[in-house]
Design a protein that fits this description.
There is one protein chain. This protein is an alpha/beta fold. It has two domains: about 20-265, 3-Layer(aba) Sandwich (Rossmann fold), CATH 3.40.50.1110; about 270-315, no CATH class. It has nine helices and ten strands. A five-stranded parallel beta sheet has the order 2-1-5-9-10, sandwiched between helices. It has a three-stranded antiparallel beta sheet with strand order 7-6-8, with no helix packed on it. It has a two-stranded antiparallel ribbon with strand order 3-4. Strand 3 (about 75-80) and strand 4 form a beta hairpin. Helix 2 crosses helix 3 and helix 4 runs parallel beside helix 5 (about 195-215).
C-alpha cells in the first residue's frame, strides 16, 4: 500500500522510564509540553524550576548551579522597568523588590537541588543556538528581560561550544555521584524572529551538537521531536495560530511517539486509568441529583483512592 506521509520511528533511550523514576526536565517551552504530560499522568517530575531557557549554555549554567546548590546573591539581580530580575532565569521569577526576587530564586534552587539528588532521568530540550551576551558583564544571558538591545551582542553558538559545555557538565555529574541517563530533544518550535535561514542554522548547530554527545556518552540518547514535527506531521494544521508553536494535537501526537519509545509498557495500563479518572473529573452531568450520577461519583472516588495507593504523590 502506498504511504502518503513519512513516519518517524524513534530509537529507544538508554533507559526506559517508569513510575519509579524521578524525572527532571529543563530547556525550551517544548519541555513544558512534555513536562505537563508527565504531570498529567502522575509521574514524579519537575519541569523548568527556573522557567523556560532556550540556549544550551544557559541551560548548562542553570544545571551547574543546581548541582553545586550555589545560592543566588544580591549581585545576581538587576533592576529595570520597575522590577528585579536575574539574567540567568526566566521572567516568571522576577519581583517588585530585590528581597522577594532573591527569596524566589533561592526557594526554586533549594527545591531543584533536592529533586536532583533523587533524579533518575534528565530530559534536556535545546531551543536556539542564538545567544545574547551582556556587554557590561560579558555573560551569556538566558533571557534579556526586555532590556534594550544595545546592552547585548548577538551571535550564533558553534557546535564545539555546545558540546564542550555539556561534556564538562556530564563529567561534573559523574564527579558529583549523579548517575542518571540524559535524554536530549530538539524543540520543534521555530524561532522565526531570528529569520527563516537563521532558525535553520541554529537548529543545525544544536542537532550536530546533540549527535556528538550521543556518540561520546553511552548515557546520552536523543528523541526526535523536531523530526516528527517537520517530517511526520509537516502541515500548518498542526501549528497554533502563530504558525510557530505545535498545537495541542501535535503535542499529543509527539507525546504518543515518546510514550511508545521511552516509557516502559508496564506503565500503560495505569496511565490509561489516570487518564480515565481525569476525564471523569472533567465530566459535567445533566442532573447532579440523579442516581446514575451519584453512582458515577462513587465509582470515581473509589478509583481515585485506588490510584493514590499506587501513586501516593499524584494530585487528582
Amino acid at each position: 500500500m502506498t504511504q502518503f506521509r513519512t513516519e518517524v520511528t524513534p530509537n529507544p533511550p538508554t533507559q526506559k522510564l517508569s513510575y519509579k523514576d524521578d524525572i527532571l526536565l529543563v530547556g525550551s517551552c517544548f519541555s513544558e509540553n512534555i513536562g505537563s504530560k508527565f504531570a498529567y499522568f502522575g509521574f514524579n517530575s519537575m519541569t523548568n524550576p527556573f522557567g523556560v531557557v532556550f540556549n544550551p549554555i544557559s541551560i548548562a549554567n542553570i544545571l551547574y548551579r543546581i548541582v553545586a546548590n550555589k545560592t543566588f546573591e544580591e549581585s545576581d539581580f538587576h533592576f529595570d522597568q520597575g522590577r528585579w530580575f536575574c539574567f540567568e532565569t526566566h521572567g516568571d521569577l522576577a519581583a517588585l523588590t530585590k528581597e522577594e526576587c532573591l527569596a524566589k530564586h533561592n526557594e526554586a534552587l533549594s527545591k531543584a537541588s533536592k529533586f536532583l539528588k533523587k533524579t533518575s532521568c534528565l530530559i534536556i530540550t535545546f531551543g536556539s543556538a542564538w545567544i545574547y551576551e551582556h556587554i557590561d558583564s560579558g555573560n551569556i544571558v538566558a533571557n534579556c528581560h526586555k532590556v534594550p538591545n544595545k546592552k547585548f551582542t548577538k551571535r550564533l553558538l558553534s557546535k564545539e561550544e555546545v558540546v564542550e559545555s555539556f561534556r564538562e557538565l556530564i563529567k561534573n555529574f559523574e564527579l558529583s555521584a549523579f548517575n542518571f541517563p540524559l535524554l536530549f530533544t530538539l524543540s520543534p518550535v521555530r524561532h522565526l524572529k531570528d529569520g527563516v535561514v537563521e532558525n535553520q542554522r541554529s537548529k543545525s548547530v544544536l542537532h550536530l551538537a546533540i549527535q556528538q554527545l550521543v556518540e561520546d556518552f553511552e548515557s546520552v540518547s536523543y528523541f526526535p521531536a523536531y523530526e516528527i514535527m517537520m517530517d511526520d506531521l509537516r502541515d500548518y494544521r498542526f501549528y497554533n495560530r502563530d504558525m510557530l508553536h505545535p498545537n495541542q494535537q501535535a503535542v499529543d501526537y509527539i507525546w504518543e511517539r515518546f510514550k511508545e519509545s521511552s516509557i516502559d509498557n508496564s506503565c500503560f495500563k495505569l496511565m490509561a486509568r489516570v487518564d480515565k479518572v481525569r476525564n471523569g473529573l472533567a465530566h459535567w452531568p445533566f442532573n447532579e441529583n440523579s442516581d446514575e450520577y451519584k453512582n458515577f461519583k462513587k465509582k470515581l472516588a473509589a478509583e481515585i483512592e485506588a490510584i493514590k495507593v499506587e501513586l501516593p504523590s499524584i494530585q487528582l
